[in-house]
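Fold these two proteins, one after the other.
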Amino acid sequence: MRAWLAVLTGTLFLALVTPGCDDDDKQPGPGQGDSGVPGDPDGGGAGDGGVSPDFACNVARQEGCGTGQSCHFADLAGGKTGSRCFAAACDVVLQNCAQGQRCTYVSAGAVTERRCVEAGTVAEGGRCTLSPTDGGPEFDTCAAGLFCKDERQDDGGVGFFCRKLCHTSSQCTDSRECNTVLRLAGTSELPLLCGPRSQPCDPFAQGCAAPLSCYPSSSGPVCAGSGTRATGESCDFSNQCSPGSACVNTGQGLNCRPLCRPSSSPACTTGTCRPLNDNPGVGACIP
């Protein structure tokens, strides 16, 4: 069942940071794969009220959607990623199914959707498989609130483990963060799982081990997979940008801007150095 495999294993989530704003939300966004180190998605920069039209609702706070809907990151047209409200039979984080059942992503043919099914028995961190079926809907053997995710092992192989579904890091346990995205066949929803914490770094020293670079995030600067987009190019997430820059809202949409120190060098060659939320001493050059 391809629907339950993480196509982008261990995907990093980083904040869409908005300069000059006092909102303490920290909405994340997906970046690079296997060697990425997570940021902290406890709220929203671009997803909390129309800063970017791509982000129609707030994933972490579950705001902006109607009754019977929940907010999830989503694949959008043109290869973009944003957030959208989705109606479904249940919520994979709230686990609002009847007793003895769980809400999870179920694959039936070419469609994957959230449904209430019989709860599995495998606990968080345990090895998991698909439930046996006779050509019917497929889902994994994890307990309620968990999802079976592929993970690369030290020997180069792949194992499958139950990891907790989440909307925000406060819902995670064992010092993990809500930072891993699942891209599932048959749905445009991008649910989140709790993953390992990120490695902090200095965005002006760029001391991360290759192929990672240091980017601002909602939990401060962290090492993440390096992007290539140049200054002024549109972006959805900070680590889509080249090292030394970040994805910020300039008032003309989201695009990559150079990093700067608001009170000292490096200064901006053009524009004004505006502080970035949740990243003390780090700013971006805004035209």
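Now the second one:
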Amino acid sequence: MSIKEQILQDIKIAMKQKDEFRRDSLRTLHSVLKQVEIDQRVELSDEIVLGILQKEIKKRNDAKDIYLQGGREDLAQKESMEAELIAVYLPKQLNDDELKLKLQDIKMQLGASSIKDLGNFMKAAKEQIGASADARRISEIAKAILA
């Protein structure tokens, strides 16, 4: 079952359980996926869906930070809960130690030696690691490794 199909299945379950928050959050997520499908005129693969899910989580986290700065803890909590809900559909996230090991391997493969190689390093890291880690975390650790 694809991720998109799983989201649709979970919407149905949330409707049966009368879980309004989960239902509405998943409907919003599904509408984003549907809009990308319509705009690009393609059938979404799991790879594309994973990228969209990561962008949606980033949006929720950014909104949460803005709400916290504005003193709106209630809205920040909602955004945080939505980000956690979306994260369920991503593959298991690497912890910092696992991520460092993978990035060290990539550094050895590329022969990267300085921060000047960061562009190529990040491209290779995103291809190999994929949705198993957030791009911000990859970037921070990559900069530390290359520095």
